[in-house]
């Protein structure tokens, strides 16, 4: 028996319950905006819906019931969160990271890259990850030392890609709209394309991207400025357990740390991540401002 199995079972159970709730909000008018979602704007282009809040409450209640002493960092409920400033490391102990709907903008538009993301972190290292897309009905799971499964079958990262030339890269542009951020993001894409990148995508869900990297469905995921640890905690375990690396895109071969606030990530096989980062150069836009 490998480690963290009780946390893994709970995360899977909670993800399935969450998925039911998310599906219940799904508009039947395919291709139209999800009118049943009751959308609010958090700030700028960052959205939250009634479904996000409801799912987060259900999932956090399930966690509190099963592991009453653990801390929970949810995307929406700031009152419940342990406090930490932008870029500050997670404290030691047992912490759950919950993104009730990763890809809220997609959800609002009925674009099916939407995932529940539940990660368990022990002593600052992500140990368990479950990412569930209720529309494609794909559940990705991993616990430290036990490999990654997609709907119960073992998966691995894309090892055929050895450089940017055979890489399918997914690069989300999140919620930042500063001029220098936009310029830097566009220049980075140009550099990859000029270096011969095979394919460029942007899905709108960080958790879904990491799950796709873990299962070899894309070769690499890069994002400078993802929204918070709830976007990446679960997916980090999926990728590492599937044989990949998850680095902080601002460092040199630097494993992504669990920190509060926005972050920067590049995930995939070591070879491809090295190539993608070398071509991009270090991001200059300061997320800590
Ligand atoms: C966002 C999504 C998006 C990423 C942003 C995240 P949310 O999370 O993962 O793909 O680009 O950085 O904040 O707001 O949909 O939960």
TrEMBL record:
Pathway: Polyol metabolism; myo-inositol biosynthesis; myo-inositol from D-glucose 6-phosphate: step 2/2. Signal peptide: none annotated. InterPro entries: IMPase (IPR033942), Inositol_monoP_metal-BS (IPR020583), Inositol_monophosphatase-like (IPR000760), Inositol_monophosphatase_CS (IPR020550). It comes from the Eukaryota. SUPFAM superfamilies: Carbohydrate phosphatase. Mg(2+) binds at residues 75, 99, 101-102, 231. Pfam families: Inositol_P (PF00459). Its cofactor is Mg(2+). It catalyses: a myo-inositol phosphate + H2O = myo-inositol + phosphate. Keywords: Hydrolase, Magnesium, Metal-binding. GO terms for molecular function: inositol monophosphate phosphatase activity; metal ion binding. Its EC number is 3.1.3.25. Belongs to the inositol monophosphatase superfamily. This is Inositol-1-monophosphatase. It comes from Cyclotella cryptica.
């Amino acid at each position: 028996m490998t480690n963290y199995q009780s946390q893994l079972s709970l995360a899977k159970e909670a993800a399935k319950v969450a998925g039911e709730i998310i599906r219940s909000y799904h508009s039947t008018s395919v291709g139209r905006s999800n009118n049943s979602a009751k959308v609010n704007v958090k700030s700028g282009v960052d959205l939250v819906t009634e479904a996000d809040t409801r799912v987060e409450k259900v999932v956090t209640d399930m966690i509190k019931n099963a592991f009453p002493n653990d801390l929970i960092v949810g995307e929406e409920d700031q009152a419940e969160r342990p406090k930490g400033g932008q870029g500050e490391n997670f404290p030691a102990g047992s912490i759950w990271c919950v993104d009730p709907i990763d890809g809220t903008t997609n959800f609002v538009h009925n674009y099916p890259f939407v995932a529940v993301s539940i990660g368990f972190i022990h002593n600052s290292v992500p140990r368990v990850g479950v990412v569930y897309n209720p529309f494609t009905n794909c559940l990705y799971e991993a616990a430290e030392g036990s490999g990654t499964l997609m709907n119960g079958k073992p998966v691995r990262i894309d090892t055929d890609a050895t450089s940017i030339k055979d890489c399918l890269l997914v690069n989300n542009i999140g919620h930042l709209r500063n001029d220098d951020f936009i310029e830097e993001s566009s220049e980075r894409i140009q550099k990859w394309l000029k270096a011969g990148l095979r394919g460029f995508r942007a899905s709108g869900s960080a958790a879904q991207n990491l799950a796709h990297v873990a299962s070899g469905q894309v070769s690499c995921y890069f994002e400078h400025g993802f929204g918070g640890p709830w976007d990446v905690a679960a997916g980090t375990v999926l990728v590492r357990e599937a044989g990949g690396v998850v680095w902080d895109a601002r460092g040199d071969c630097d494993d992504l740390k669990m920190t509060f606030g926005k972050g920067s990530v590049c995930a995939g096989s070591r070879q491809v991540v090295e190539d993608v980062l070398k071509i991009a150069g270090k991001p200059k836009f300061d997320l800590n401002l």
